[in-house]
């Protein structure tokens, strides 16, 4: 069996940068309160918890004067304000590409455009962006969700959640352009996402199957799985090498390996090592 890793794959620049900042803060302060899970990967969160990480859901849970970590997804201004009120020391891991999307959304609003954000309204990045805006923002997950804007003579601005699929974004832009009188477009999909999606798209055509490793709670990992399946490649989605289904591998000569942008290097390495010694691993798994 031949293994073909997608290239690039795994941790993106923004998550790597945020986790490095978090690790430095843990080393310096011992205890750090992360607002929401710092990375969409349960195994990595468990490792960081061993170093002193405490995950909280709200800024109100950070003790007065505590150290608070803002993950790569960023947060809205209300949360930053609450942390300030609590005299928290803030370690800001907001990805610069997310920051750019936040700033572009504010710019569109200040220029009087009705803002359309292509993304998942439940995603923390999207919530952090919409929290900056006055309320006249529409989050849409597809072109169909735009609805009827006829006769509105609308000036619209559109941008994207950074991890959105390029096809979905371009569909929404195309549909919007036919429904409004003026459209300003900011493509805020980050390169890391597009590169990882393209590498999976190409790999899917060359192999007998693809193993995607990454958190089941990771939106970007889910999208890699969707793309792989849309290319017709049998696709196995696991969080860790212990979940490998050896029967799924049977008869496949070339296997692609891809990882979400929130999958740490050590989990990918463990998977590749496990696949490289299938007899031993099989024995252990039975
Ligand atoms: Fe940033 Fe892109 Fe990663 S927005 S967090 S580099 S997927």
TrEMBL record:
One Pfam entry name: LYTB
Gene Ontology terms describing biological process: dimethylallyl diphosphate biosynthetic process; isopentenyl diphosphate biosynthetic process, methylerythritol 4-phosphate pathway; terpenoid biosynthetic process
Single GO MF descriptor: 4-hydroxy-3-methylbut-2-enyl diphosphate reductase activity
Cofactor binding: number and manner: Binds 1 [4Fe-4S] cluster per subunit.
InterPro entries: LytB/IspH
Annotated keywords: 4Fe-4S, Iron, Iron-sulfur, Isoprene biosynthesis, Metal-binding, Oxidoreductase
Catalysed reaction equations from the record: isopentenyl diphosphate + 2 oxidized [2Fe-2S]-[ferredoxin] + H2O = (2E)-4-hydroxy-3-methylbut-2-enyl diphosphate + 2 reduced [2Fe-2S]-[ferredoxin] + 2 H(+); dimethylallyl diphosphate + 2 oxidized [2Fe-2S]-[ferredoxin] + H2O = (2E)-4-hydroxy-3-methylbut-2-enyl diphosphate + 2 reduced [2Fe-2S]-[ferredoxin] + 2 H(+)
Residues noted as binding dimethylallyl diphosphate in the record, renumbered to the chain: 40, 73, 123, 218, 220, 262
UniProt keyword Oxidoreductase present: yes
Keyword Oxidoreductase: yes
Residues involved in (2E)-4-hydroxy-3-methylbut-2-enyl diphosphate binding: 40, 73, 123, 162, 218, 220, 262
Catalytic activity, EC: 1.17.7.4
Co-factor requirement: [4Fe-4S] cluster
Binding site for isopentenyl diphosphate: 40, 73, 123, 218, 220, 262
Enzyme class: oxidoreductase
Active site: 125 (proton donor)
Pathway terms, separated by semicolons: Isoprenoid biosynthesis; dimethylallyl diphosphate biosynthesis; dimethylallyl diphosphate from (2E)-4-hydroxy-3-methylbutenyl diphosphate: step 1/1; Isoprenoid biosynthesis; isopentenyl diphosphate biosynthesis via DXP pathway; isopentenyl diphosphate from 1-deoxy-D-xylulose 5-phosphate: step 6/6
Residues at which [4Fe-4S] cluster binds: 12, 95, 190
CDD domains: lytB_ispH
Purpose: Catalyzes the conversion of 1-hydroxy-2-methyl-2-(E)-butenyl 4-diphosphate (HMBPP) into a mixture of isopentenyl diphosphate (IPP) and dimethylallyl diphosphate (DMAPP). Acts in the terminal step of the DOXP/MEP pathway for isoprenoid precursor biosynthesis.
Alphabetical list of NCBIfam families matching this protein: ispH_lytB
HAMAP family given in the database record: IspH
Family of this protein: Belongs to the IspH family.
Full protein name: 4-hydroxy-3-methylbut-2-enyl diphosphate reductase
Organism from which the protein derives: Aminithiophilus ramosus
Phylogenetic placement of the source organism: Bacteria, Thermotogati, Synergistota, Synergistia, Synergistales
């Amino acid at each position: 069996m031949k293994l073909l890793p997608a290239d690039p794959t795994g941790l993106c620049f923004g998550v790597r940068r945020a986790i490095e900042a978090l690790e430095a803060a843990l080393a310096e302060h011992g205890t750090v309160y992360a607002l929401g899970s710092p990375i969409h990967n349960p195994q990595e969160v468990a490792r960081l918890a061993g170093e002193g990480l405490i995950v909280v859901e709200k800024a109100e849970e950070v003790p007065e004067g505590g150290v608070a970590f803002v993950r790569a997804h960023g947060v809205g201004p209300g949360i930053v304000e609450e942390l300030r009120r609590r005299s928290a020391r803030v370690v800001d891991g907001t990805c610069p590409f997310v920051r750019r999307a936040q700033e572009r959304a504010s710019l569109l609003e200040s220029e009087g455009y009705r803002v359309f954000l292509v993304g998942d309204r439940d995603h923390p990045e999207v919530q952090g962006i919409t929290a900056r805006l006055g309320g006249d923002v529409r989050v849409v997950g597809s072109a169909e969700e735009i609805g009827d804007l006829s006769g509105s003579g609308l000036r619209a601005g559109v941008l994207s959640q950074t991890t959105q699929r390029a096809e979905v974004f371009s569909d929404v832009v195309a549909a919007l352009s036919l429904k409004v009188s003026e459209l300003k477009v900011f493509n805020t999909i980050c390169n890391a996402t597009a590169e990882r999606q393209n590498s999976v798209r190409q790999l899917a055509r060359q192999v007998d199957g693809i193993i995607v490793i990454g958190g089941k709670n990771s939106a970007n990992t889910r999208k890699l799985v969707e793309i792989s399946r849309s290319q017709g490649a049998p696709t196995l989605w696991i969080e860790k090498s212990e979940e490998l289904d050896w029967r799924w591998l049977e008869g496949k000569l070339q296997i692609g390996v891809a990882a979400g942008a929130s999958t740490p290097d050590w989990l990918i390495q463990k998977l590749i090592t496990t696949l490289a010694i299938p007899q031993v691993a099989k024995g252990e798994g039975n």
